[in-house]
Amino acid sequence: LIIIIIDGLERTLIKTCVLAGLAAARFFTFIMSLFIIAFIGVPIFEIYLLISVGEEIGAQWTIMAVIGTALLGAALVRRQGLATLAKFNASRGTTEGPAFIVFEGLVLLIAGIFLLTPGFFTDALGFLCLVPALRARALRVWISKHSVAVNQNQRRSSGDVVDGEFRRLDD
């Protein structure tokens, strides 16, 4: 299922690039701009929030709030991570694949990274990832958009494949 989802994501990405008319250089520029926003814009915004909150409630309370959210977040991620691990172990004996649970664990990992990163914006994102109903809904939407249904009787073939029978003739 993971390979199918990754294949679907790859196909969606290629279709998006082709349909949008983006050349490879423009697409690379788009991805790099996302990285710039993630690695430069978010920290600058975090610093702005920390200074603003520090001016309102004081530096000591701001530091305590950042440390408190990190500790609370770590405890919540640990608790939900252990629950997800128990669900994974329980799902291994069933006929259903544990793909959804694996993705849920991945979101919990991302939540932990957000919560351990100092700042209020990343803490808010991390706490949003910890809401089970929101996390499940977001994962279902993402998986439905990026997965490809494969029928067991349907075979993928390119134009070069010819279906036929053969017999070996020994001389």
Provide tags for this entry:
single chain; mainly alpha; 171 residues; elongated; 6 helices
Describe it:
The protein contains 6 helices and no strands. The two termini are 46 Å apart. Helices cover 76% and strands 0% of the residues. Helix 2 crosses helix 3 (59-91) and helix 4 packs antiparallel against helix 5 (120-130). With 171 residues, it is mainly alpha-helical. The model has no long low-confidence stretch (mean pLDDT 79).
In a few lines, what is going on in this structure?
The protein is mainly alpha-helical and 171 residues long. The protein is built from six helices and no strands.
The tally of helices reads: 6
Strand content: under 5%
Average pLDDT for all residues: 79
Number-wise, the strands total 0
